[in-house]
Amino acid sequence: MTDLPSGKAVVAGVAGWPVAHSRSPRLHGHWLKRHGIDGLYAPFAIAPDDFERAVRGLAAAGLAGLNVTLPHKEAAFALSGRADETARRLGAVNTLVFGPDGAIEGRNTDAFGFAENLNDSGVTGSGTAVVLGAGGAARAVVLALQSLGYGPIRVSNRTAARADSLAATLGPGVDTVAWAGRAAALAGAALLVNATSLGMAGQPALDLPLDDLPAGAAVTDIVYTPLETPLLAAARSRGCRTVDGLGMLLHQGRPGFHAWFGVDPAVDADLRRAVAGDLLMGG
Ligand code: NAP
Questions:
Q1: Claim to verify: residue 122 and residue 82 sit in the same structural domain
Q2: Would you call 33 a catalytic residue per the annotation?
Q3: Distances from the Cα of 100 to the Cαs of 6, 60, 65, 234, in angstroms?
Q4: Which domain holds residue 122?
Q5: Is residue 5 part of a domain?
Q6: Is 35 exposed, middle or buried (0-12, 13-18, 19+ CB in 10 A)?
Q7: Which atom of ligand 1 is nearest the CA belonging to 196?
Q8: What is d(CA 229, CA 226) in angstroms, rounded to the nearest whole number?
């Protein structure tokens, strides 16, 4: 048991541009402390043009690995010598594991994080799912929904071509719906997922009447600032079960922590407070 890192500390971190907003240092810092691990987890602000050189340098310097956030997930996939199946299907990597010889392995744990968050919340249904959005996060969500047994999956995105491309790569069982038809697409749905950035603090609201959504449906939002988005508040007042997006962030960190520090850490109320206490207070 140690409170302060030694000269033998295992070092990992998160690479992003910008990175100052990242909650991953708090997430992994909490786990390191809880498990008394001789380790460090640091933020690395790396500009896109420097990404490959910086990552190879950090791997050569003996880091255990990195989480990768915007805008580097595709670049991280491109430089991974080996990538897991999810990363290959998504063409994106959010977790890098460095071998002792400097080998770089890429993984994508966003789909795992989304699925574990639903499981943790007791949402284990099947049936029709509606996904709004077709960006990187929406692709991970669709993959997770397929693994959980949802289907058909209706995807609606402002830019139709992006939804079509998602359906072409992740189908069959993925149908696209015009953005103008998103409210009507809720009829008969068991689950609604917002995987756009709409509803996030500082972004426009998601304009989505819920009249056609069955009251027995569950609703989840991958936006977690605020924790209760206007969509989740509206769904709750209809009597729908709601799941916020913070758990996805917390669970996606588990596989990386396990690979670097050797412990599969727990996601619990203490962790939620440590990572997002300001949001829990409504801040
Ligand atoms: P992205 O690739 O940039 O995709 C953004 C999505 O939002 C696209 O579908 C985009 O539609 C849509 N969108 C943005 N502005 C819009 C508007 N004004 N009207 C309609 N649609 C709009 O981003 P991403 O990586 O998928 O991330 C999406 C959100 O998920 C972000 O808020 C991110 O913070 C959050 N996220 C959360 C977690 C978590 O752990 N909880 C993990 C990953 C991401 P177009 O294609 O038409 O532009």
A1: no
A2: no
A3: 19, 9, 11, 50
A4: 111-247
A5: no
A6: middle
A7: 7
A8: 6
Q: Is 102 left (phi over 0), alpha (psi -120 to 50) or beta?
A: left
- The CATH number given to whatever domain includes residue 196 is 3.40.50.720
Q: Which of 73, 139, 154, 254 is catalytic?
A: 73
Q: What is the pLDDT of residues 6-56, one digit of tens each?
A: 999 999 999 999 999 999 999 999 999 999 999 999 999 999 999 999 999
Whether residue 3 lies inside any domain: the answer is no
Confidence at residue 278, expressed as pLDDT on a 0 to 100 scale: 85
Position in ligand 1 atom list of the atom nearest CA 197:
32
103 & 144 share domain: no
Measured in Å, residue 114 CA sits from the centre of ligand 1 at 15
**pLDDT > 70? residue 1:** no
C-alpha 66/C-alpha 97 separation (Å) is 7
| Cβ atoms 245, 192 nearer than 8 A | no
Handedness of CA 166, 172, 174, 177 (dihedral sign): positive
Taking alpha carbons only, the member of 136, 128, 58, 121 closest to residue 272 is 121
Q: Do 177 and 227 lie in a common domain?
A: yes
Mutate to test the pocket of ligand 1, among 70, 197, 271 (most ligand atoms within 8 A of CB): 197
Tell me the three state secondary structure of residue 30. helix
As for how many domains the chain has, the answer is 2
CA 135, 136, 142, 148 dihedral sign is negative
Could you give the C-alpha distances from 194 to 29, 52, 137, in angstroms and in order? 29, 32, 10
pLDDT tens column, 253-282: 999 999 999 999 999 999 999 999 888 876
